[in-house]
Amino acid sequence: MRKVFRQHCLVMLFTVFFTVKRPCQLERSSFKQKCYSLSPNQRTFQLGVGIFGTLTNPKSTMYEMKIGAITFQVALGDIAKESADVIVNSTRRPFNLKLGVSKAILEGAGQAVEDECAVLAKQFHRDFIVTQGGYLMCKIIIHVLGDNDVRKTVSSVLEECEQRKHTSVCLPAIGTGNAGKNPTKVADDIINAIVDFTQKYSTPSLNKVKVVIFLTELLNVFYDNMKKREITISPTFQSTSPQNAYNIPEYWADMNQQLFCVIQLQPGQSEYESVKHRFSQTCLSYRIEKIERIQNEFLWQTYQIKKKHMDMKNGHTNNEKILFHGTDADSVPHVNQHGFNRSYAGKNAVAHGKGTYFAVDAKYSADDTYSRPDSNGRKHIYVVRVLTGVYTLGHKGLITPPSKNPYNPTDLFDSVTDNIQHPKLFVVFFDNQAYPEYLITFRC
């Protein structure tokens, strides 16, 4: 077995290790500043340009690597003896394959699961079905078709786990058995599906994905794939470094190595008046109490990486819009620190997909449905930079934007809307596709 050396790694998105400490208040002549401190030994961010952590070898028959928020493991073993919230069975229609791994899973789960498979296979025409766990050490079994596209299949499994709030899933090397798929391609597809998932969810419920295989040769294939994604970088990055490729805006106040700051703007400032004007174009009847600028360096950096990627992909820089998002007072601290996490998706609307919704007009977001008044009658709207890019019509049930090209299912639209010619709202499906720039607190 190959020996794995620990090393720092390059990541596609940022990985940040920090603990939020006490808030502090500072008064300045032109604004009020609320900052959130790090302890002195925590003021260095561990950042990179990717999502892959260090490849380790905790056991002689296991490799492990962090992929974003997911702990990814590959190990030799018997999947029917694994313990996880979800176990995945790779089979074929009508979901009753009694060969290889599928045989072990069905026999281990018991006759009740086989009977349930038989019933569900007749009722549903999806590419997977979900049954009870039976005698296996899991809550549910997701039965997938091994002949199907592996990346799409694993993406569907991860989405199903997330929707059900499960924390761990165990799957075989889908398609490498009776389906005869190329093991190298399967390993690549499984890992890429996890990457896709981590780019949608910054803080998912699902936090562990384990691939259990029965051949040492397959273990080596996964090792090679994981190892090639691990690239050494400088172990630390100072947030004030001049080498920062995505500089924070010049108009931001000095953050003094804080995690993030909330800056209260003052009436009469050009920045305040500009935000007020944008809001008042459709919300003249409301009275603004305060406007705050959100200075969150981590969110800004990840947003700029996404913007650069979209600009390159689309061949132009006209991918950003300034939109509005209404919310309640309880959600404000979370958005300020973590952005528009998709765990909030569908909180108020799902008609155009299970993403985060942003309105063209402030009036739409000011509705009590979206910006629910607190006990004192105050309401809250964010002015948001949103990467809408190339968009299309949305519809209920979407969990990602549709594919642009039926022959290339991985080439997706960037966002969806309610009306292509005259959009009133946009929906995005990736956490780093929107930056909450200003928070307006107002009342009727």
UniProtKB/TrEMBL annotation:
Entry GO CC: cytoplasm; nucleus
SMART domains membership: A1pp
Subcellular location, principal: nucleus
Gene Ontology biological process: negative regulation of gene expression; protein poly-ADP-ribosylation
GO molecular function: NAD+ poly-ADP-ribosyltransferase activity; NAD+-protein mono-ADP-ribosyltransferase activity; nucleotidyltransferase activity; transcription corepressor activity
Keywords: Glycosyltransferase, NAD, Nucleotidyltransferase, Nucleus, Signal, Transferase
EC number of this enzyme: 2.4.2.-
Taxonomic superkingdom: Eukaryota
CDD domains attached to this UniProt entry: Macro_BAL-like, TCCD_inducible_PARP_like
Cellular compartment(s): Nucleus
UniProt signal peptide: 1-26
One Pfam family here: PARP
Keyword field contains NAD: yes
The keyword Signal appears for this protein: yes
SUPFAM superfamilies reported for this sequence: ADP-ribosylation, Macro domain-like
Top enzyme class: transferase
Start and end residues of each PARP catalytic domain: 248-444
Ranges of residues in domain Macro: 59-230
Family to which the UniProt record says this protein belongs: Belongs to the ARTD/PARP family.
Protein name: Poly [ADP-ribose] polymerase
